[in-house]
Every structure is written in structure tokens, then in C-alpha cells.
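lol so apparently i was supposed to do this last week
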Amino acid sequence: MPVDVLAEILSNTRLAPDYNVVTFRAPQIADMAAPGQFVMVRCAQGLDPMLRRPFSIFEHVRDAEGRIVGLSILNKRVGAGTSRLYDVTAGERLSVLGPLGRPFVPVPPPEEAWMVAGGVGLAPFASLAEALAERGTSATLFYGGRSARDIYYEDFFTRLGIRLVVTTEDGSRGEKGRVTAPLERELTARGPGSTNLTIYACGPTPMMRAVAGVGAASGRRVFVSLEPVMGCGMGGCYSCVVPVQQGAGHHFVRSCIEGPVFDAHSLVWDAMTSTGH
Amino acid sequence: MPVDVLAEILSNTRLAPDYNVVTFRAPQIADMAAPGQFVMVRCAQGLDPMLRRPFSIFEHVRDAEGRIVGLSILNKRVGAGTSRLYDVTAGERLSVLGPLGRPFVPVPPPEEAWMVAGGVGLAPFASLAEALAERGTSATLFYGGRSARDIYYEDFFTRLGIRLVVTTEDGSRGEKGRVTAPLERELTARGPGSTNLTIYACGPTPMMRAVAGVGAASGRRVFVSLEPVMGCGMGGCYSCVVPVQQGAGHHFVRSCIEGPVFDAHSLVWDAMTSTGH
Amino acid sequence: MADLSVRIGSLDLRNPFMAASGCFGYGLEYADAFDLSTLGGVVVKGLFLKEREGHPPPRIVETPGGMLNAIGLQGIGVRRFVAERLPELRRLGATVVVNVCGSTLDEYAEVSRILSDAEGVAALELNISCPNIKEGGIQFGCSLTGTYDVVSAIRKVTSLPIIPKLTPNVTDVSSFARASEDAGADAISLVNTFLAMAIDVETRRPKLSNVMGGLSGPAIRPIAVRMVWECRQAVKIPIIGMGGIQTTADALEFIIAGATAVQVGTANFVDPFIWPTLINGLTDYMRRHAIARVADLVGRLEIPGKEHA
Amino acid sequence: MADLSVRIGSLDLRNPFMAASGCFGYGLEYADAFDLSTLGGVVVKGLFLKEREGHPPPRIVETPGGMLNAIGLQGIGVRRFVAERLPELRRLGATVVVNVCGSTLDEYAEVSRILSDAEGVAALELNISCPNIKEGGIQFGCSLTGTYDVVSAIRKVTSLPIIPKLTPNVTDVSSFARASEDAGADAISLVNTFLAMAIDVETRRPKLSNVMGGLSGPAIRPIAVRMVWECRQAVKIPIIGMGGIQTTADALEFIIAGATAVQVGTANFVDPFIWPTLINGLTDYMRRHAIARVADLVGRLEIPGKEHA
Ligand SMILES: Cc1cc2nc3c(=O)[nH]c(=O)nc-3n(C[C@H](O)[C@H](O)[C@H](O)COP(=O)(O)OP(=O)(O)OC[C@H]3O[C@@H](n4cnc5c(N)ncnc54)[C@H](O)[C@@H]3O)c2cc1C
Ligand SMILES: Cc1cc2nc3c(=O)[nH]c(=O)nc-3n(C[C@H](O)[C@H](O)[C@H](O)COP(=O)(O)OP(=O)(O)OC[C@H]3O[C@@H](n4cnc5c(N)ncnc54)[C@H](O)[C@@H]3O)c2cc1C
Ligand SMILES: Cc1cc2nc3c(=O)[nH]c(=O)nc-3n(C[C@H](O)[C@H](O)[C@H](O)COP(=O)(O)O)c2cc1C
Ligand SMILES: Cc1cc2nc3c(=O)[nH]c(=O)nc-3n(C[C@H](O)[C@H](O)[C@H](O)COP(=O)(O)O)c2cc1C
Ligand code: FES
Ligand code: FES
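anyway here it is w/ FE2/S2 (inorganic) cluster bound
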């Protein structure tokens, strides 16, 4: 059951000219939150903008004693709401509604977990990585960005014992090119179905679609976290629908309550509208 | 000619739960400003609220060398815009348009100047007092508030050699009652027309009307600074009209360009809508 | 203690606050967030006889002080609603109003008949005003005879209170209120959304897949309040007012203008826990103004002697 | 360097940005703030034959994303305008469009005749859409024959470009666009304000002395853009679009929807120095998109194959 918290902002850390991390004092939400769930943030009190904006829960924020005191979001500035969040100051209070949506299910060993993140699509994987580490599931993060500037939090993942494969489009960091290249290479190296592994992906729609493709080609399960425009996050408005297979065609389902995490193979990618970064 | 300055806020000083003084770095405006002129402040960048709000120019703000670096406004929180201004923080920038409107004309000696301020109506008298002091005009400030809490800046005026007569409705400071009581008393004491003196008033409409009345009764000139709702401050919208005598009836004139200062005896008080504090 | 209950024809509401159609799913989506029986009523998403897929995304876009939507009335159809949603809504004690859609008079009547036979429907709101689909009833809602015909057709098949929902996209909304009253409506609700569009100037394409959509939210409130006031002068039947209500004061504008109850749509997206705030705010207002019953506030706009209109 | 000039019938504008009537006084109020000749045009406050006092204050109130106004067309009358304002406007090189008001066909014609005989009037905008006064022409603007009659009456007495200004308070604005075209209008402008009201719930009184007023500002933009687009499909004559324009992107929405020029009203109150910002923004946009002439943008909305409307 989601709760709405008028949450104090504990910090706003700028990572780059258009990326920042905002931490909120909202233990009630963080306590309940599972990997891949999201919150609806009211970026301003008034009309600038009016509607809330959806954000994956990034980190669980803990105090010295390790008690959960809040949560953070990884914000990319693309418009009115995310610009407001880029400029917030500690001490301000914003309404945060959550946790919302269906989470990622972390696979247990011996199954392996491969996470594929594009840019701000990294957000849901911080908590998924923790959940996997807890279970002792061996995990890899394929992490792609435009350039070195867009690659963050590597030690967060390495500290958890996650293997990192970084790519940048300009080659300024890690392998040059798309993140799907190393993914595809390693998948073929493994050979179809050789070992059990599950793929989790989040990022721009074309990237997720590509991951779904290579995953299918090698017979792997792929779970994606979609990011459509969302008006309410609670199932009330039917704005956030995505096309899932139904017979020969597709059927629109509300991604805020039936997602945002979907089995990639159940989606009709041809009918998918791409929002995104 | 008015200018629009995206002015840095130098300070926000709270005087009481609903009064504060905001200083803006806007020397271009302060340099041109005459006593009784006003500025239109854009209280927020977006739509909360959208229209600018009019404020009398309170102090000319000077640096250590006495150079004018900006201006201040005395703000009373009554709604959306003034609430924003109550909460602004130093460093923020807001658009300030001015100077606007027709100023008070400070009378020269031997003429005497009596200023009558009700609550936030004190605002235009800081700069008028300075102008009068420069000219060596002997001046009195009749200053009324609801209670001691609403009486500010007394030393500002006494330092300029202004005589102060304070009244509060609850008697917690100065004489108990309306500010018009001591005014009327002193006027009668003087006897009609005995010495030349001009009255300047600003405050709630009923107070200004009363001052106009007692002034007229003793044959004194009274100038009032009106505070109607204003949409533009530049003469563009015709929202700010006030009724001035025309033959038997009245004619609506735009107070933003033909005022806000008016000869009280030219106004048709019966036809005046009272906005106010 | 102030009495918040109001009466819409034969329909009793615990308080004047109803969730607006299309902004509250089928109600159950909010059931584990709070107790649905605390609302005056729940108007569920518009229902046709058959299931509908609706329009492809993007289906909404925010605009200054409001939002556009072109959902296209995606829905599960009236039979599945009655079978799969209604029983649970009843169990939860929700006062259920169904937003009835149709492409033809027969479909309106058929949907209404099915709902009348079902247990647990408190009233029918006739959607003759959805701007987003050609066959969404707007052809009825923009014609006086069309409005009259739909209402009288449904009047024949049900004894439930029927509440035509009027479109604001007309020259004289009060004439549609009269047509509804003449045809036997128990009440009217207004306003539905304003037909509008937004363009992405970088791509030179509409921001909605459907090109046009309906404008809702605070931006439209002053127009909606005016329309409620005009209808109040025109008809005797109760009015359910809506359009941009975010606060108790907003709701009071509609009530004072002549609405017996109000609906909240867009604001529920911004604050899904808005209901207790609205209810407490109204109780508080009535205490401050020593008003015993909401009915004593309805249409109590006071116009100073001066020239009107 | 992009060419910003546009043509409205026989009227050439330096750029598409005009000050909207009633939001810019008689122009001279802004003359010492900046050079009026840099604007595409200045539409002055509505003028009747005689002086008018207008409504008592309060005349405006802010609403979410907009404002209501009920000024009541206070004005100095056409003769004083011609004698006392027009010469100075000419001297300053302003492209002057006069907003013509009338209570009768004869008054419209008489005002128009006087303005045609004067030197320095570039065009006549016919205000048949002021929602704030009974005799403000709205009775013409809400009737197709009324619109046709006013336009043809004025067509007879002037060779100046005539531009009826349409009200958005109608069911089908495009039919009024056609009536205007049929009657010989050179262009149409839209939208005027939306009839609306706001209530002070503490006093239970209207916030405007006139009870009702016209809604303007960003709140109405999506509706206005939709109406411009509908009119673009309906008529060949140029359209001047307005309603909530605050930025170059807002103006581009209207242009891409089908407006050849745009007017800015309410936003001029918020930022009286908005004009250079708009002009530079448009120049910049045209450079980025390699568009040579504004005309190449007008009505260039691209609708992806999918289902429309
Ligand atoms: C479940 C979920 C989780 C998300 N997690 C994150 C996250 O962790 N970090 C993050 O930065 N963003 C995340 N997003 C995307 C984020 O919600 C949008 O970027 C945001 O809503 C844009 O709002 P805005 O006001 O800044 O942009 P707007 O002013 O609303 O739009 C500006 C531009 O952004 C585009 N846009 C609008 N909505 C989206 C969207 N949902 N996705 C991509 N582009 C969009 C618009 O089409 C427009 O071109 C998530 C979205 C969903 C649905
Ligand atoms: C020339 C001039 C000089 C002014 N100088 C000052 C000043 O120095 N300090 C100061 O605090 N205020 C001053 N005012 C008044 C100030 O402009 C208003 O209080 C302000 O516009 C209210 O805006 P708001 O958004 O806070 O209130 P709103 O939300 O707009 O309105 C809230 C309440 O305040 C009332 N109100 C609205 N406008 C006015 C108004 N002009 N006067 C009184 N009540 C109003 C409304 O009727 C409503 O009841 C001045 C006004 C004028 C015209
Ligand atoms: C996303 C969305 C979907 C809607 N769907 C319906 C609907 O199915 N039937 C209907 O009659 N009105 C529908 N409406 C209109 C609302 O019920 C309401 O009339 C309108 O939004 C104005 O109220 P508001 O400003 O409080 O949202 C919808 C509105 C929105 C925003
Ligand atoms: C205060 C005010 C006064 C207006 N007066 C007139 C007028 O005299 N004649 C007219 O045709 N339109 C008048 N209008 C309407 C505007 O010209 C314009 O059509 C409308 O405000 C929409 O544009 P905007 O949203 O940019 O303001 C007035 C608008 C406002 C806000
Ligand atoms: S965001 Fe409203 S239904 Fe999914
Ligand atoms: S405030 Fe606009 S004319 Fe005075």
C-alpha cells in the first residue's frame, strides 16, 4: 500500500550538468520498497509543474547505525519537473508517493543475473544489485553512457561484488559503442542456454528493445523496466499504457500497476511509443 | 522611463509573522526613483502567481560609501504573491519593474509636512521623509498599527528628525485608537490655515478617506497614495482605475500612470472600491 | 457538527465529494489506499457495451495549469465491469455511479439496462461529452435534440437516477441543461473537458497521438464555475459541478455557484489522498460560517446591487 | 538571415508579433519603454463611437494560469483617438490596427468610416466577441448571420483590411470563420477571452464587480491552438492567432497550427519587454530549422499516419 510523504530533502548532489541525486527523508516508503519500484514526486507545490513525475527508487539511504532513513532518486534533467528537481535545496519538502509498481524479482543462485543499464536507466539497479548480493547471486552490470561524464556509482556496484562492463558512445570510458555490443558478445560466448542467466534492462526504449532481441536470440529471460509518461502512478488515468501480446495483436495495459517491470518477450515492441532520454 | 531588472535579492528581514522587508540589487531603478513611486515585482518565475504585484519603493539601499546599490520593499503577507515574497531567500533573483507612477511632491519650508501611515502604508514615507529632511522641511509622521507588533522603523524616522506620533488599536504602543484621532486633534489645535501644512497619507482606503475628510475640514491639502489591484503598472490594462471628480459625477483614471499619488480632494470616495489590508 | 450529506434526486451522498469519471479507474485501484465508502461517490471510467482499447500513447500532456488527455475511453465493457468489479465495489460500501457511453441510442440504452439490472449501481452518468472519440457521444452532446433523445431513451429503460454529463464546448450550455431536464434527467453534471491541442514545435507534430485531447485541471475552473452558475438559473434539477477543483475553496465556488455536489478529477492525480483534506476543509468552513447543511450553501452567490452581466 | 515579415491580406507586418487589443493601452503608454515600430503591429484598445467609462473595479482577478478581466471597454471614443493618439502613433512608425466596437451595425460602420478617413490606420479588427458588455458585439459574434452582417456592413464602408475577431465561446468556431470569409473579411483573429467567473467564498460574492469576465493567459492556450487549427482547415484567409502566448515556442504552436501572425496580451503585463525576446527566439528557431520565411511554417503541422481526431 503506497503512502504519500511530505518528505524533507536531505541532500542534492550534482553529478553532471544534467544529472543529480536527490535524497528524501521517507523511511516509510524506503522500508517497503522492493527493487524496481518507483515513486511519484510532486516536483513543485503549485502548477510549475502540476502533475507528479515518476522516478525509480535509486538507493535506500541509511544512517550510521544502518537504519533506513530515506531513499534517493537519480534525476536526469529533461524538462520542467526534472529541472525543478535539479535545483532543489536540502531542507525543502516535496510530496513523494510510493512505493509503486511491480518490482524486479532477483533470481537466486545458481542462476546468474545480468543487468543492462543505459544512462539514467541505472536507477533501478542499485537496489536490485543489493538484493542480488544478499542472495549471493553472481551478477554483472553492463552499463552504457554517452561519455565518461555519464558513468557514475561504479564503486557502489563493485563494492557489492558486481562485475562491471562499461561502454561509452564516444569511447571516453570503457569500450566504445553501444552497451548491447559486449552483452551480445558475452551471450554468444556462453552459448545458448549453457548456464542459467536472467537479464534485467532499463534505459531508452530502443536499447531495451535491442536487449530484448539479443536475449530472445540466445533464449534468455529478459525483464525490462519501462518509462512511459505517467499521470497518476496509481492506475487511475490510463495514460501509461504499453502494448502486451494478445493473440495475434496487442492489448494496452497500465504500466504503473502491471509494470513498470515487464517480461520483455510479452511486449509488442512494434507498437511501443518511445519516450526517453 | 521604467526598466525591468532581474534583481538579486540581497536580504529578507522578517519583522513579524506577516511583515518583512526584501532588498533587491536594482540600482538602475533606485537611482531614478522618487518618493511614492512603485515597482511591479514578479513574485515567481512561473504561474504561482503569474501577474506581477505592485509595491511602493520603501528604502533606497546604500553601500558603505553611500552609493545606491538597490531598493527595498516593505511586504505584508495577504495572498499568493506576498506569501512568496515573505519566503524568498537571499541570492534568489526576481524581476523588478520600475520606477513607476507619479511621486509625492515634497513641500519645501516654511511649509510643514504631515505624513499619515496605516500599517504597511508606511512604505512610501521612508523615501519621502528623506526628501523632506534634505529640504529641511519640518515633518511629522502619524503612524498607526493594530498593535505594537505592527510598528517598525521608528528610529529610521527619528534619526531624520521627524516627529513621531504613534497609535495602536489595542493601545499596546503609543496612543490607543485610530491614527486619525491625534491627527484631527492637532489639526484643530492649529486652527484652520494658521500655518501652511500639507498632509500625505497611505494605508487602508477607509483610513485615507478619513484623513481626506479631516484635511478638507481644516482646509489642508491632502495627497494620498492609493493601492488598487494592478495588472500591469504601465497603463496597458485599465484594471487599476479610480474615480476622479468630473462635473457632477466621476471619471475613471488609471492609477498606475496618473497615480498612485492623488490629490485626495479630486477623488470621489463614494465611488472608490476598497482593496486592502 | 455540520451535516455534509447531499441529495441528488433520489440519490443520497455522504458528502458532496465524488471522484470524477476516468480519473479514478474503476475505484478499486484506490481501495487499499483508503476507504472508498468515505467518498460521496465514485464515478467509474466510461463504459461501452464492449471492451475498447483506446488510443495509442502518448495519451496525456501537461499544459499550463492543466493537462490534455486523449485516452480514447479504453475500458473493459459493461458486462465485465458488472461481473468483475461491481461486487467488490459493493462490498467496500462505495456509492457507485457509472459513466455510460454509447455510439448509438441503442447502445446507451443497452448499457443502461444492464447496469439497472445489476446490484449496487447508485446512478448513471451519461457521457455525451467525450471530446476524444468520434463515436463518443459528442455528436449527441453538441446537439439539443441529440441530448434530449439520449436522455429520454435511457429514461425509458431505467429507474436509476440519470445524470447527463454536459460538454463545455457549446455556445449556450444552459440550453443543454434545459433539454436534459425536459427529457427527464434527475440531475446534470458539468463540465467535461475542453477540446484542445498541444504541438511539439521541434518536431512540428501534435503532442498527443490522437492530435486533439480534452483540457482539464485548474486552468478551466473559472469557465466551469460560470457554466454551473448559468445552468443554475436555467434548471431546477440538481447540478454536479466539476472542473479544476483542487481545494475546498475551489469546491465551494462550485457549490455557491449552484452545484449540489462536486467531482474531482485531475487533482486526484496530483494528490490521491485529497479526499479527507476536502472533507475536513468543508466541515471547517461550515463551522466558521455557522452553516448547518451543505444545501444552505448551494447557489447562495450574493451579487451586490450593481449592474450584473 | 531569416525573413520574419508576414502578409495579412494587403497588410505587411515586419514580424508576426502584435500587441493584443486591450493589453497595450493605445500603444503610447509603452512608447518611451521601447520602439513601437519594432513590433509587427499594435492593436489598440477597443473603440466605440463615444467615450465609455467601463465597469467599476475590481476589474481583474488572477486565476490558475490566467486572469479574468471585465474592463467593460473603457475608452476615449474613436474621434478623440484619431485626434489625440493616432498622429503620435504614426510619427513613431507603429503599424496601427484598431479594435472596432459597436452596439449596432451603424455604429460599427460609422467607427470604421471615421478610421478609414484618418491617416495611419493599417487595418481594422472587428471586436464582435467581447464577453464583458451586453452591447459589446457578442450578440453579433455568437450568431453566424450577425457575424456575416457586421463584416459585410463594414466591407461596404472601408477598403482597409478588415479582421473580425472571433469569440471562442461557441460550439463551432470554424463556421464563424467561414461566415467572415464569405462576408469579405481579409483575415480573422482569434481567440478573444472565455466567459468565466470567480467567487470569493468567504464573502460569497463574485470577485469581479461585473460578476463575469473573460479568461485569458496560458490556461487557455491549448483550446486556442485547437481553434486556430480548426479554422485553418475551414478558410483560406490568413489567421491571426492568440491566447496565452508567453514564449516563442507558444507562438510557434499557433503558427504551425495555421496562424500567419500572433498577438500577445496577458503576457505583456507579466513582461512588457517581451517583444525582443519573442523576435530573437523566432529568428533563432528559423536558423536552427533552416526555415527561410515564416510563411514556410504557417500551418505546417505534421500528423503521423495514425488515426486523427
Ligand atoms: C517508472 C518510471 C521510472 C522513471 N525513473 C526515472 C529515474 O529514475 N530518473 C529519471 O531521471 N527519470 C526517470 N523516469 C523518467 C521521468 O519520469 C521523466 O523524465 C520525467 O517525467 C520528465 O518530466 P519533466 O517535467 O522533466 O519533462 P516534461 O517537461 O514533462 O517533458 C520534457 C521532455 O521529456 C519527455 N518525457 C516526458 N516524460 C518522459 C518519460 N517518462 N520518460 C522519458 N522522457 C519523458 C517529454 O516527451 C518531453 O520531450 C522514469 C519514468 C517512469 C515511468
Ligand atoms: C501602488 C501600490 C503600492 C503598494 N505597496 C505595497 C507595499 O509597499 N507593501 C505591501 O505589502 N503591499 C503593497 N501594495 C498592495 C499589494 O500590491 C497587494 O497586497 C498585493 O498585490 C496582493 O497580492 P497577493 O498575491 O499577495 O494577494 P492576492 O492573492 O492577489 O489577493 C489576496 C487578497 O489580497 C487582496 N488584494 C489584492 N490586491 C490588493 C491590493 N492592491 N491592495 C490590498 N489588497 C489587495 C485581494 O483582494 C485578496 O483578498 C501596493 C499596491 C499598490 C497598487
Ligand atoms: C485522464 C482523464 C480521463 C477522463 N475520462 C473520462 C471519462 O471516461 N468519462 C467522462 O465523462 N469524463 C472523463 N474525464 C473528464 C473528467 O471526468 C472531468 O469531467 C474533467 O477532467 C474536469 O474535471 P477536473 O478538472 O477535476 O479533472 C476524464 C478526464 C481525464 C483527465
Ligand atoms: C485586460 C484585458 C483587456 C482586453 N480588452 C480587449 C479589447 O478591448 N478588445 C478585444 O478585442 N480584446 C480584448 N482583450 C482580449 C485580448 O485581446 C486577447 O484576445 C485575449 O486576452 C487572449 O490573449 P492573451 O491570452 O495573450 O491575453 C482583452 C484582454 C485583457 C486581458
Ligand atoms: S499513470 Fe495513471 S494509470 Fe498509470
Ligand atoms: S495596472 Fe494596468 S493600466 Fe494600471
